[in-house]
Amino acid sequence: MKILVAIASYGTRNDRYLARLLQEYRGMPFAVDIIVFSNISKEVPPGVKVLVGLPSKDPWSLPFAHQPVFEEKIKEHDIFIYSEDDMLLSERNIRSFLKVQEALPDNEIAGFLRYEIGQGGSRNYPEMHADFHWDPDSVRQRGEFTLAHFTNEHSACYVAGRKQLERAIESGGFVVNPHRERYDLLCTAATDIYTQCGMRKLVCVSHVDDFLVHHLPNKYVGTRFGIGESAFRAQIDALIKLQDGTQPPVSLLPPLAQDDPYPKHYFEQEDVEISGLIPPGARSLLSVGCGWGATEAALAKSGLQVAAIPLDPVIGACAQAMGLECTPPGCDAALQQLKGRKFDALLISNLLHLVEDPAGLISVFLSLLSENGSVIVRIPNVARRSPVLSKMQGEKRDGAIGNSATANAFRSSKGALLSWCEAAGLRARSIAGIYRGRSKRWQRITFGLVDRWLASDIVAVFIAGPSVRLHSRKTSSPVADAHASSLPAQQVLPRV
Questions:
Q1: Rounded to an integer, what is the distance from CA 343 to the centroid of its chain?
Q2: Which of 224, 232, 410, 434 has its CA 20 to 30 A from that of 58?
Q3: How many DSSP H helices and E strands does the chain contain?
Q4: Taken in order 471, 474, 480, 482, is the CA torsion positive or negative?
Q5: The whole model's pTM is what?
Q6: Domains of the chain (ranges plus CATH)?
Q7: What is the mean pLDDT of the chain?
Q8: Higher pLDDT, 404 or 384
Q9: Where are the beta strands (DSSP E) in 327-441?
Q10: Residue among 165, 179, 202 nearest 82 (CA)
């Protein structure tokens, strides 16, 4: 078996990791050819080739240099490996790939996940952050193996057999100019084989340890990128249960919701703004659309009795591992489990703009709200999406909304939130914007005149009662409508 290894190594910062990789590959019992792609000459062991040059003027384009070389040498090798210069693939990883790939159809390819090692040997899994998550509907059995798709395809490396690489090249999506798609340049070069070549990356969760690759710098340990061992294993166990049929793959969100420019974060950080909105007398809280439970666990630690309806059974396993009470993710099943109970507060965070009927979702759970209870809501503020305002606030993303899973995301704003809650029979007790980064400075400069466009998010507390009566004057903006409405005095939130 002949293996061609392509390693992208820019500059000299990772040379110590590169040396470790070269040692590992040269010690394998295979016929291994190694090419290091770099912007500078490098001293490497005999037999290792260095190709110097960038595909474009952008230094981040370096990873794309391996694609035409793989095409050129497609008939000379059996296995093709690409990685960044700090990803330590092992012989075990390669042999496991070969074994699992034999059981997969042509449009599926076995993939890997990164892990890092922290102090005391603790592990961090950096791919698992923000809105990335396991797709419950993707779990499948292939021979003796259980596999599933994780929505973050990037793992800074991939392995492909000749058959998979030929399919990728024939698709026309592999040998391409440097480009950005879902990811930046660096990550796109490592994911094109999955994202635009007609193949789906699946991780073998039944033998997941065989598909974990050490990210040598351990740079994300202790940051917001990644989760620990217990949360990772809880998800793996939940995926196995989905395959066994012991729990259904029900999700609270529609399938395309995560394509929205404001997706729900499955691995969201503790939301201190929400914590500050819990009414002083509240003793119990129900979180609708719970991710892995960081905010809910913090609220439980403060003394609240917290129950959670998770986004899906996989992420719900993380929340349960934190000690939270979790229902099944489906509305009907959750209501059945919580029948007869009352909660002093309902929390619905960054969810309403992703569902087809926001008012309907609120109404479903109002039967669980105690008398004089509160509904606490957070949504993104789409009004700030204009290119000019994005530049003023230091944002690099495009000002366009893009393709949204639901029309509600186009009007996620203060006015829309008031309209949704009004339709559900609620009235606002307090409502305010969240300002971050340069937005806080612009807010001071403009004396609050453009606050509605500067806020990144909107947080509000609602109570049951007469509907909010919006101003009758017609405007083209839901935000303007809300601004003209007669509301109670607004609570002033800390500027964060």
A1: 29
A2: 224
A3: 16, 20
A4: positive
A5: 0.86
A6: 2-244 (3.90.550), 259-483 (3.40.50.150)
A7: 86
A8: 384
A9: 343-349, 369-380, 426-434
A10: 165
